[in-house]
Amino acid sequence: VQLQASGGGLVQPGGSLRLSCAASGFNISSYTMSWFRQAPGKGPEWVSTVATDGSTYYTDSVKGRFTSSRDNAKGTLYLQMNSLKSEDTAVYYCAKASAEYGLAYPYNYWGQGTLVTVSS
């Protein structure tokens, strides 16, 4: 199993970025996938989840600004981030649930992270 996150970078406040997470070694369509982030000096924070049926869930601070999705055919998870704020600065990680289909399973594989810096 491998998760390869990409798409991070430096963006001005109000700008947009799209993160990708390329999955290999398993069938992404069968697993809940999520995005987490860790800001400098802070603990990890859950950002968004995409369930196997395509349902999406978001932490309150990103609702209306971030959109997560999956392309099962490509084995890729996405996070479209709009109206970015300085407080969105963090390393973003994708993660795979440890068992098929459920929403409540812990995560057993994590990508290497991609840094998003929101600054003028």
Q: What do these coordinates show?
A:
By secondary structure, the protein is mostly beta strands. 0% of the residues lie in helices and 51% in strands. It is built from no helices and 11 strands. Strands 2, 4, 5, 6, 9, 10 and 11 form a 7-stranded mixed sheet that branches. A hairpin with a 5-residue loop joins strand 4 and strand 5. The chain is globular and about 40 Å long. The termini are far apart.
Gyration radius, in Å = 13 Å
Determine the number of helices (DSSP H or I, runs of at least 4 residues): 0
The H/E string reads EEEEEEEEEEE
Q: What's the count of strands? A: 11
Structural class by secondary-structure content: mainly beta
Shape: globular
Catalogue the unreliable spans. none
Strand content: over 45%
pLDDT average, as an integer?
96
Major sheet summary line: 7 strands, mixed
Q: Could you tell me how far the N terminus lies from the C terminus, measured between alpha carbons in angstroms?
A: 37 Å
Helical residues, percent: under 10%
User: Quaternary state, please?
Assistant: single chain
Tags for this model:
single chain; 120 residues; mainly beta; seven-stranded mixed beta sheet; four-stranded antiparallel beta sheet; 0% helix
Question: TL;DR?
Answer:
This protein is an all-beta fold and 120 residues long.
Q: Layout of helices and strands, plus pairs?
A:
Blueprint (H helix, E strand, L loop, with lengths): L1 E5 L2 E3 L5 E8 L8 E6 L5 E7 L5 E3 L7 E6 L4 E6 L8 E8 L9 E4 L3 E5 L2
Parallel strand pairs: 2-11
Antiparallel strand pairs: 1-3, 3-8, 4-5, 4-9, 5-6, 7-8, 9-10, 9-11
